Amino acid sequence: MDESLVKRLEAAVVRLESLSIGGSRQVAAPEDGGDAAATDPSIVAFDDLISQYVARVTSAAEKIGGKVLDVSKAIAEAFSVERELLVKIKQTQKPDMAGLIEFLKPLNEAIGKASALAEGRRSDFSHHLKTGADSLSALAWIAYTGKDCGMSMPIAHVEESWQMAEFYCNKVLVEYRNKDVNHVEWAKALKELYLPGLRDYVKAHYPLGPVWNATGKIAAAAPAKAAPTRGAPAPAPPPPPPASLFSSETAQPSSTAPKEGMSAVFAELNSGKPVTSGLKKVTADMKTKNRADRSGIVTAPEKGTRAGSSSFSKSGPPKLELQMGRKWVVENQIGRNNLVIDDCDSKQTVYVFGCKNSVLQIQGKVNNITVDNCTKMGVVFKDVVAACEIVNCSGVEVQCQGSAPTISVDNTAGCQLYLSKDALGASITTAKSSEINVLVPGSEPDGDWGEHALPQQYIHVYKDGQFVTTPVSHSGG
């Protein structure tokens, strides 16, 4: 009994601290039914999520301080805002598009604060800030209204959002595993906040999205715009909004045909401070087979055009498209940390060329992946049928979350390979490459990653009529 009381008090303290972070932001007083909604099992469970998981993140951040503490407070504030919205949903009828835009605006503003911290000049804690900012897109599950709304179902959305943030979270774990245990504790606490924390909460209470109150009050609509003066021509209709959620770029279509309705919500959420963890997708009209200005014939570039290190600034415009239904082409992307290919299958290949300072996530099994002539490029993929090839690259990082029978690295300086447990049996081939490190998961579920440097130097000895080659081993005496 005493332990239960202590947990309730801790939850109340965490909520008060989270609300105080918002500064001058005013919190509406609960109306009729507010007390009943606050005691609903789903709201109580969200309070437990905050007290158990969010509190661990902020507690670990306090030991580090600085910008890590700032982004952790922004995370706590975003979860607090989501709790307020969950309470209001139980008191409110499902609004129309304009009303839903206005309803979700506080959450977008809270997420924007974390994104603002991750922008600008690179700091010592850039990976922490990117992890925190990207992870908050998981809270957008609350915007799910049905299978035609343009986003994954709530549970899948939480998992997919964390996968993007995990790319930077793993960098924190690798960088600080032997330097500072506080950073490792923070990274692990943040992961557990989403997996299993938020994912299990959504699975238990909102697997099909939020449930609105059919007999509740009507949500406040967005402020009406001023009517045009008499005699003035009516303004032209705006272009259709993008279907991607929390996109940091404008006019990036979805991988399926643009949808009406909820697409407008996502476009409005994108106003103001954009969230950098948005998804970049490809529409059917961007595929080569459907474009009138393309013949559909894929021509091989001249060999000389790939030799220069400045090819990504001179070779042409950026591309992210499916050609002839078989080959995904990602070219000349610079500074894009939110590229996503999600409409793929095991018969298609992915070719990444001339990209710099970008991150590509491949959500699904593909036949082959080639990363060619890229600099400081990150690629995260699930499964590959044939091989993942890295050639003519510099400072790249590749993470396999599923299985890959073969990984080859050719003429590359600096490559980090992150392998899942299912990919430990992969055959890794290297040629004319240096600084190749392979990181594998620990034996324990929460254990540290093990780092292994692949040999670069070899000894060739003529023995018994043939040369015997062995890697150079540096050992002390």
UniProtKB/TrEMBL annotation:
One Pfam family here: CAP_C
Tree of life domain: Eukaryota
A GO cellular-component term linked to this record: cytoplasm
GO molecular function: actin binding; adenylate cyclase binding
Biased composition (Pro residues): 234-243
Alphabetized InterPro entries for the sequence: Adenylate_cyclase-assoc_CAP (IPR001837), Adenylate_cyclase-assoc_CAP_C (IPR013912), Adenylate_cyclase-assoc_CAP_N (IPR013992), C-CAP_CF_C-like (IPR017901), CAP_CS_N (IPR018106), CAP_N (IPR053950), CARP_motif (IPR006599)
Comp. bias intervals (Polar residues): 245-257
All residue ranges annotated as the C-CAP/cofactor C-like domain in the record: 317-454
PROSITE patterns the UniProt entry points to: C_CAP_COFACTOR_C (PS51329), CAP_1 (PS01088)
Biased composition (Low complexity): 223-233
Biological process, per Gene Ontology: actin filament organization; cAMP-mediated signaling
Region Disordered: start-end pairs: 223-260
Similarity comment: family membership: Belongs to the CAP family.
Protein name: Adenylyl cyclase-associated protein
Organism per entry: Salvia splendens (Scarlet sage)
